[in-house]
Amino acid sequence: MSLTLYQLEGCPFCEKVADALDEAGVDYETVWVDAPHSQRNEVRRVSGQRGVPVLVDEDRGVTMSESDNILEYVERTIVPQASA
Questions:
Q1: 3-state DSSP helix/strand/coil % of the chain, to nearest 5
Q2: Under a CB-based contact definition with an 8 Å cutoff, are residues 67 and 53 in contact?
Q3: What is the rounded distance in angstroms from the CA atom of residue 47 to the CA atom of residue 7?
Q4: Who's near 25: CB < 8 A, 6+ residues apart?
Q5: What rounded mean pLDDT belongs to the chain?
Q6: Contact of 44 with 18, CB cutoff 8 Å
Q7: Which of 4, 21, 37, 75 might form a disulfide with 56, Cβ 3.0–4.6 angstroms?
Q8: How many CB atoms sit inside 10 A of residue 70's CB?
Q9: Which CATH architecture has domain 3-67?
Q10: Sign of CA pseudo-dihedral 4, 71, 39, 47
Q11: Phi-psi region of 34 (alpha: psi -120 to 50; beta: other; left: phi over 0)
């Protein structure tokens, strides 16, 4: 499984997503981004916007933002696979 989580240190929405991935027991890479939106060019390149968190699931070709959407995706897609 190839997951990358773009997150900002101290961001509570990012922490919720990281906690969900940790609880699911899946491996993922963290890319820490700069606080100023204007410096988040890598996030923009992968997701088309500069907000975080952003989850990239390379195995499924999925890139998504918004913590609630990511949490739903983790629960519906990643947790069942990690449990199998």
A1: 50, 20, 30
A2: yes
A3: 13
A4: 82
A5: 93
A6: no
A7: 4
A8: 24
A9: 3-Layer(aba) Sandwich (3.40)
A10: positive
A11: beta
Q: Where are the domains of the chain?
A: 3-67
DSSP 16-39: HHHHHHHHHT---EEEE--SSGGG
Reading phi first (left if > 0) and then psi (alpha if -120 to 50, else beta), residue 26 is in beta
Mean pLDDT over 49-75 rounds to 96
- Are the CB atoms for 24 and 78 separated by under 8 Å? yes
Per the model's pLDDT, the better-predicted residue between 67 and 78 turns out to be 67
SS3 55: strand
Span 16-43, average pLDDT: 94
Return the DSSP state at 52: S
